[in-house]
Amino acid sequence: MFEIKAYIRPALLDRVIDALGQMGGHHGIAVVPVQEYGHAADDGDGLVRAEMIKLEVNAEADRVDAIVELILSDARSWEGHVGDGIVTVSELRSARKIEDGKEID
Question: Which residues form a coiled coil (predicted)?
Answer without folding.
Answer: none
